[in-house]
Every structure is written in C-alpha cells, then in structure tokens.
Write a structure and sequence with these properties.
Number of helices: 13
Oligomer: single chain
C-alpha cells in the first residue's frame, strides 16, 4: 500500500465522522445562535469531499489491478457484502428498539432491499453498484488515452453538475440519455486518473495519461487552495441559499456538486504529491485497515456519546464537533480492533 493512499483513507474516515457529528448543527438553520450554525456548517462543508474520496481511492486501487471477473466478485464484492449484511442486521435491531421501526420482518427485508437501513449505510449500495461496474470499465480505464479521459469527464459533468443545477435552479430535467455518466461513476474513474497523473519532471506511471505541467510542490499548494476555496464556497453559498429560502438548503453540501468534487480532487492532489515524504507509521496502517469497520460502527458510538451528554454542542460546536469526532474515531478504532481479534471478526469489519 502506498503511504499517501493510507493517509488519504484515514483523512476521509475522519472527515465522514465530522459530517455526521456536525450535520445536526448545520441543518438547524438559523439555530440557537449564528456562531453555532456557522461552526457546524463550516465543519460540515470541510467534510463534504469525504465520500467522494472513498470512491476515488477505490477506483485508484482497483483499476490498477487486473482482477478476472469471477475472482473479483468472489474476493472484493463478497468482502464488502458480508460485513454490510451483518451491520444492516445490527442497525435493524438498533432501530427497532430505539424507534420501533422496522416493526415486522417484512418491513426489515424491505429496508434492506430498498436501502438504506440506516442513513450512513447508503454508501454500501453505492460501492456495491460500482463494484458491479468494475469488470466492464476496467479494460477501457487501463488503456484509455488522455483525450478519452477528458471526454469521459465532460460527459460526467453534464450528467451530474449540469443535471442537478438545471433541476434545482430551474426545475428542468436534462433530457439527454447519458445514464452511464451519472452519480459517482466519474469519481470512480477520476481516482485512478489523478492517482496516476505524475507531476512535471517525474516518471510517467501510466502511459497515455499526460503528466501535469506543474511541479510536486505546486500541486500540493494547489491541493490546499482547492480545499480552502471549495470549503468556503460551499459554506457561503449554503448560507446565502438558506437565508433566501428561510430554511436550510443543502444543495452545495451534496456529494455530486462541483464544490464536493473539486474539494476531493484537492485532497487527492495534496495526498498524492505531499504525503509520501516519510514512512508510514504502524498506527496509520492499522487505522486505514480498519476504516471500513469504523465507517460501519461509528454511528452507534456517536449516538451513545450523545445519550451520555457528550454531543456536538456539549461545548461550543467550533470545538465540540472536532473533539466529539476525534473521540468517536478513537472509540470506533478500538472497538473494531477488538472485534477483529474475535473469530470471524475480520469478516464483518
């Protein structure tokens, strides 16, 4: 595993926890006070590239290997499906005792089929769907030249950014039938493309993908600029829309908007060209290895801390959100590490 990929996975894990801790503050517009809302929304905006990063990392790692379809489905697909089903069952039981829903076995099965069983488990349906597409896309992705990647990304922009903007702003539907280029498929391919795009003066890692015209240090600076700029735009645009409508408007917090995609690209540029300078530590590797399990379990622990009074606003959210997120991450890491010592523990995390 490349150090930068492990570190980026760890960053994405922390960012997605930050989203779930801060979301209630951000969505409570205007909230109990302007300072509370701005703090919650700022942390939420910072974390929005997280899901895109998970998808991009999967694309980078998977498209770089030649998995035959049958082996891929047995090893990678099943590796996600088994823990997904286990934790869906856990959250079904949790929701039954906490909210009385689902009330019957039939409703539980319907929740599993329709998805998601719990709000954060929608990602399972996304990643399994992308995995089913992998054997079809792999031959093209591994051989496509630069111009074909650019063509692909233009169509993805039409199928996501343009479609969502027309629908949200003008209540118009983009009638062109380009279903292949909607949703997160663009992020899946973008991860492979950015991960294999070399800095100026470096050896080309994937023939056909042209290197950047910038040095490694400039790409790192560019990554920081993209992260800061997209976070600020998401925050300010969300505030403007929310004031205009008098209620929280999450359009710019969506994962399929330009700000979330460009923010994820910024994180990947930063990691790819700036996070390989020192050997990876064991704790970083272990945290990355448990990231999927942390994603699955962290909501349970976050809810438990909230019940105990250790929620996002136990102190001012500007500090409360990162403190709670860090505590949830550490507790989740410890819990998953413990589960993985049990028989079959690794199979469900």
């Amino acid at each position: 595993m490349l150090p930068w990929a492990d570190r980026l996975r760890n960053a994405a894990t922390l960012l997605v926890i930050i989203i779930h801790v801060s979301a209630q503050v951000a969505q409570n517009f205007p909230g109990p006070g302007a300072g509370h809302w701005w703090a919650g929304a700022a942390w939420d905006a910072l974390g929005r590239p997280s899901v895109n990063l998970f998808v991009m990392l999967s694309g980078f790692l998977l498209f770089g290997k030649n998995y035959p379809t049958d082996i891929f489905l047995k090893k990678r697909f099943v590796r996600v499906l088994i823990p997904a089903l286990f934790w869906m069952a856990v959250y079904l039981v949790y929701n039954f005792f906490a909210h009385g829903d689902p009330a019957t076995l039939g409703q539980a099965l319907a929740h599993v089929l329709e998805g998601p069983v719990h709000y954060h488990l929608w990602f399972i349906y996304l990643i399994l769907g992308l995995y089913l597409m992998y054997p079809v896309l792999r031959p093209w992705v591994q051989q496509a030249p630069e111009r074909d990647f650019r063509y692909f990304f233009v169509l993805c922009i039409l199928g996501t950014w343009v479609y969502k903007t027309l629908l949200y702003c003008f209540d118009l539907r983009f009638g062109l039938s380009i279903e292949l280029f909607t949703n997160h498929l663009g992020h899946f391919v973008l991860g492979y493309y950015l991960g294999n795009k070399a800095a100026a003066g470096e050896a080309v890692t994937r023939p056909g993908i042209e290197p950047w015209g910038y040095t490694r240090s400039r790409l790192v600076i560019g990554g920081w600029v993209l992260i800061a700029l997209t976070t600020a735009v998401s925050l300010l645009a969300t505030y403007g829309l929310s004031v205009r409508h008098g209620i929280f408007q999450p359009f710019f917090f969506d994962y399929l908007t330009p700000t979330s995609t460009m923010g994820a690209a910024g994180w990947m540029l930063l990691a790819r060209h700036g996070w390989n300078t020192r050997p990876i530590r064991q704790v970083e590797s272990r945290f990355a290895a448990t990231s999927f399990g942390i994603y699955l379990i962290h909501v349970l622990l976050m809810d438990g801390l909230t019940v105990l009074g250790f929620g996002h606003s136990f102190i001012h959210p500007v500090l409360g959100i990162p403190v709670v997120a860090a505590a949830v991450a550490l507790l989740s890491f410890a819990a998953v590490s413990l589960i993985r010592t049990l028989p079959f523990g690794k199979n469900i995390t």
